[in-house]
Design goal:
The protein has twelve helices and seven strands. It is of the alpha/beta class and about 350 residues long. The longest helix is centred in the C-terminal third of the chain and has 32 residues.
Length: about 350
């Protein structure tokens, strides 16, 4: 795609043309030539969308809840973009659940843009392509961007880097779900939703969640690992009391198939968004997210450079054989391959 064609595509997206939005996301997902220039051009137009992550174990009702959330936001006059991150097909790398009917309540509504994307081998994780697609939806002008992940346990922490508010769905009476939370996913949740709350065990699950949240927020319980599994972003505070004013995750009950409790969930999500804005944590999280994105891109680009150099020198297999024969060792091989790159960086620095 020529530079002129790229500029035209960006302009059409910014003008609100859904076809251009779809084309941009396809380019992003396929990593087509020129996609980076397109994402770069969109960046200055981002920063306004409220990004909400929806995660949880398979069967918890995530897709149904996302459908009802989108409908509720549309009824309030807001525009919505939905990215559903599905497991990668082992044959094509595509999204194997992409053809299922998900947004039944929003069929025909052009202001709800739905896209199913492949996690590209990162179960429960968000690929770089997904983060770029969020930028496209943000630049397009969507008020709410919802990311639904496959739900694969502890790896769901990846969603924290992309979503402003993380919502974790839990099924009532599921011992596996409670164990999953103890394994680490508890740390990423801003809001917990006990879906299918018409089941008899729902109240017990709510009580278990609230107890776990209390233990997590209690330093004496030896579970205070920092919200989201890492240190909270530093923000300017005026006194010790304000510094200690941290968000306490809320537990909400819903019956998504009937829409019950969804409006309450929307209120809680709005409450968390207001908290982020008022405390300065929204900006702090964004800076932290961009820092991680820069690191990730550097890792990817550097890895590609080194893979190309490996191929030029006969492939990694030849080095592995030499290591096996004790002619060299892995550290020496790594030093040898990285040396040209290090020399280039050193020359530029001078």
């Amino acid at each position: 795609m020529s530079r002129a064609a790229q500029r035209e595509l960006v302009e059409e997206l910014l003008d609100g043309k859904h076809r251009a939005l779809a084309r941009v996301i396809t380019k992003i997902e396929n990593r087509s030539p020129g996609y980076r220039d397109v994402v770069s051009a969109l960046h200055e137009h981002t920063g306004d969308a409220d990004v909400i992550g929806i995660t949880g174990s398979p069967g918890a009702g995530k897709s149904t809840l996302v459908d009802k959330l989108a409908r509720t936001y549309r009824d309030a006059g807001l525009t919505v973009g939905v990215i559903a991150v599905d497991p990668s097909s082992p044959f094509t790398g595509g999204a194997v659940l992409g053809d299922r009917i998900r947004m039944a309540s929003n069929v025909g509504d052009m202001e709800v843009f739905f896209r199913s994307m492949s996690a590209r081998g990162q179960l429960g994780g968000l690929s770089t392509a997904t983060a770029d697609a969020v930028k496209a939806l943000d630049a397009f002008g969507k008020d709410k961007v919802i990311i639904e992940t496959v739900g694969a346990g502890q790896n769901e922490v990846d969603i924290v880097r992309t979503a402003d508010t993380v919502t974790v769905l839990v099924q009532p009476g599921s011992g596996d779900d409670v164990q999953m939370l103890k394994a680490g996913i508890l740390e990423i949740g801003d809001v917990f939703v006990v879906n299918k709350a018409d089941m008899p065990s729902a109240d017990r699950t709510v009580a278990e969640l609230e107890e776990m949240i209390h233990m997590r927020n209690d330093p004496t319980a030896n579970l205070d690992l920092g919200h989201h599994g890492f240190e909270e972003p530093e923000v300017a505070v005026e006194d010790e009391e304000e510094e200690n004013d941290r968000w306490t995750p809320q537990v909400v009950k819903t019956v998504a198939k009937d829409g019950e409790g969804v409006e309450n969930l929307v209120d809680v999500l709005a409450e968390h968004r207001n908290y982020l804005e008022e405390t300065g944590r929204l900006a702090a999280k964004a800076r932290m997210r961009y820092a991680e994105e820069i690191r990730q891109l550097l890792r990817e680009d550097t890895a590609q450079l080194l893979e190309a150099e490996l191929d030029r020198r006969g492939g990694v297999e030849s080095y592995a054989a030499a290591v096996y024969d004790r002619e060299t060792d892995p550290y020496t091989v790594a030093d040898e391959l990285i040396e040209p790159l290090a020399d280039c960086v050193e020359e530029r620095r001078d």
